[in-house]
Amino acid sequence: MKTNLIQQEILLLTDSTFSQQLMGEKGSSDSDKYLSQTEQLENACWNGALYEMLPGVIKKTPGGKNLYVWEVRSYANFLEMELGEYLETTKQQDSINPYIFLSALYYN
């Protein structure tokens, strides 16, 4: 019997009012004060703030546990997060990342 793995990809715009408000609410720790806003947001995602930021968006495992954050990539205007039960990269044709999606579209 084939089991379906839960995998999720999230893009978070770094220059949006939403992201700026999140960083304002979270505040910055002493270790983060020398980082850019994008780096602070990236650290917050790695430290589990993603579940607090987007509680209705992030899926859970069938057992009710949070998905693992496997990858956080920084681009010019957004952060891309890959979450899942297991480490598995998103296929090009299934990605919502415009750089990956558009390059796959070009080859079709």
What order do the strands of the largest sheet run in, or round the barrel if closed? 1-3-2
Compute the average pLDDT: 80
* Percent of residues in helices: 25-40%
From the spread of the alpha carbons, the general shape counts as globular
Secondary structure tally, helices: 4
The quaternary state of the protein chains shown equals single chain
Percent strand equals: 15-25%
- Helix/strand/pairing category: alpha+beta
Distance from first to last alpha carbon: 33 Å
Please write the string of helix (H) and strand (E) elements: EHHHEEH
Tell me the total number of β-strands.
Answer: 3
Largest sheet: 3 strands, antiparallel
Q: In the residues, how many domains can be counted?
A: 1
Given as residue ranges, the uncertain stretches (5+ residues, pLDDT < 50) are none
**Gyration radius from CA atoms, angstroms:** 15 Å
Describe the protein.
This protein has one domain (7-107). It is built from 4 helices and 3 strands. A hairpin with a 3-residue loop joins strand 2 and strand 3 (78-84). The model has no long low-confidence stretch (mean pLDDT 80). It is an alpha+beta fold. It has a 3-stranded antiparallel beta sheet, with helices on one face.
